[in-house]
Design a protein that fits this description.
By secondary structure, this protein is an alpha+beta fold. It is built from 15 helices and seven strands. The protein has a five-stranded mixed β-sheet with strand order 2-4-5-7-6. Helix 3 runs antiparallel to helix 4, helix 3 runs antiparallel to helix 6 and helix 10 packs parallel to helix 11. The two termini are about 60 Å apart.
Length: about 500
């Protein structure tokens, strides 16, 4: 059967295993996604798109002006005269105005931006640039030495259109505001000349305009989706931060409650043990008839019952205090070299009488010559006694308990206590390993116990850096294994030389 370990705790401030919490989280995330799924007209995203457009205009402010300067230089070189220079100056002024507006929008906080006015200002600036390209589409060159001047104008317009479709995609309608009129003017000029080349280029420009508008629209949708994802991520991060704050607060309260519990138990231990010691002492005197015989045997039985109940209550208090100290990290280990074999053998002898009363045989299977462990002997003794006590408690009359001590595969040492009792159902093992947890078999058999033995064993082994494993099969028995790591094993020291050996060496 696979190894089983406890995955539960005594107290949960937030039980993350509950399905209703998972459904609540999923519902909140889905609601946030629906809220943040961007459709056109969201003022927050309109501001963000305008900010993106402004940054894009600033980043690409030199691209189209360089094209304008190159065209102007080529025109001056071919003899177009001052008209091409005036056109270039007008274009540079228009793009400088757009860059200035973009810089102002970029410096303004998004919450303070008026989306409608800013979008209108940008479109007006782009429309002015479009008037400049209209002027360029209307330009002629009768004296220049270039035969295919209209073809060159179409290529320049295509380049400017492609660059604008990429850089101005965040502003819906910017491409049409710039190039709708220039393409119409160029088509009119080409139709007037009525030459095949001009007609082909005019048709190409007319087809290219909706194509680049389609590209710009898809880039705009991509930018919109990016903003939507970023907003969703910010909202989810905010929810995570809120959940983390709540978790930290719950953890702080749990730590405060645990500290208050530890202080209460520490202060009440003396108040509880003092009257219990008196009850145990007087009830033992009465049940043993130390001061004289009791005429009524029923009273003697009552005194014995009082003594057993008081002893059980004292054991319960001691176990609760031990577990509380372990959980609070206040259990101090008194580490010293010790032999695991010797401690387990003493514990077997201590539990021998209790086992004989139930006709249970304890079989010892120890490996010889095990080195010492660096551990707390009292804690190791408590581990062994708890495991043996549980085995005897749940083993039927005439059963057998096998106790083994030996090496682990990793070089550590282990203690195994295996019985042939009724076993534990697989789904009840986590319950048995939790504090105050008892299986159905223990409840049905009304076995006296607190359900703290195995949690204490787990805690003590964890403080030693070890592990606790529980193998069980229904109606076949249970095996509890306490494992001490290799780091706790001490190498055997060499024997000191005797006086005779030392004399011979001299």
């Amino acid at each position: 059967m696979p190894l089983q370990r406890s995955t539960t705790a005594d107290k949960f401030i937030v039980d993350r295993r509950k399905r209703h919490r998972n459904s609540d989280v999923a519902r909140a995330v889905r609601k946030t996604r629906d809220r943040l799924s961007q459709q056109a007209g969201n003022p927050d995203f309109d501001r963000e798109l305008l900010k993106l457009h402004a940054r894009s205009m600033i980043g690409s402010a030199i691209v189209v002006p360089l094209l304008v300067l190159a065209v102007a230089a080529a025109g001056l070189f071919t003899g177009m005269g001052k008209e091409i220079g005036v056109w270039a100056l007008f274009m540079l002024i228009c793009y400088a105005i757009v860059a200035f507006m973009a810089g102002r929008v970029d410096r303004t906080e998004a919450a303070e931006t008026n989306p409608l006015q800013t979008r209108r200002d940008f479109l007006i600036g782009h429309f002015l640039c479009g008037l400049g390209w209209t002027w360029f589409a209307w330009l002629g060159c009768d004296v220049c030495q270039i035969d295919q001047f209209h073809l060159i104008k179409a290529v320049v317009l295509l380049l400017a259109m492609a660059a604008t479709a990429i850089t101005a995609s965040s502003l819906h309608g910017a491409l049409l505001a710039i190039f709708a009129i220039p393409v119409a003017v160029y088509a009119y000029a080409g139709a007037r000349l009525w030459t095949p080349v001009e007609l082909i280029m005019a048709g190409l420009l007319i087809v290219s305009l909706p194509f680049f508008a389609y590209v710009a629209r898809h880039l705009n949708r991509a930018s919109l989706m990016l903003l939507s994802f970023r907003s969703e991520k910010d909202a989810l991060v905010a929810e995570v931060e809120t959940a983390k704050s709540m978790s930290d607060e719950a953890r702080r309260r749990a730590e405060d409650a645990n500290l208050a519990k530890s202080r209460f138990l520490a202060s009440m231990s003396h108040e509880l043990r003092t009257p219990l010691n008196a009850i145990l002492g007087f009830s033992e005197v009465m049940s043993n008839e130390v001061l004289g015989p009791m005429s009524n045997p029923t009273y003697r039985d009552y005194a014995r019952d009082v003594h057993e109940s008081g002893q059980h209550l004292l054991d319960l208090i001691n176990e609760i205090l031990d577990l509380s100290r372990i959980e609070a990290g206040r259990y101090q280990l008194n580490e010293e070299p010790m032999l695991l074999l010797s401690v387990v053998e003493d514990c077997c002898h201590m539990m021998e009488l209790k086992a004989r009363n139930k006709d249970i045989r304890i079989v010892q299977d120890f490996e010889s010559a095990l080195p010492r462990l660096l551990a707390d002997e009292r804690a190791v003794r408590q581990i062994a006694l708890n495991l043996l006590s549980n085995a005897i408690k749940f083993t039927a009359t005439g059963g057998e308990i096998r106790v083994r001590v030996g090496w682990t595969a990793g070089g550590g040492q282990y203690l195994s206590v295996k019985d042939n009792g009724p076993g534990i159902p697989e789904d009840e093992i986590p319950v048995v390993l939790s504090a105050f947890g008892q299986g159905s078999i223990a409840i049905k058999s009304a076995e006296q116990g607190t359900g703290l033995g195995l949690p204490i064993v787990q805690g003590l082994l964890a403080m030693h850096g070890g592990e606790f494993e529980l193998h069980s099969k229904l109606r076949e028995g249970t095996e509890a294994i306490a494992i001490f790591p290799l780091s706790r094993v001490m190498e055997e020291l060499p024997a000191l030389p005797t006086k005779a050996v030392a004399a011979r060496r001299r």
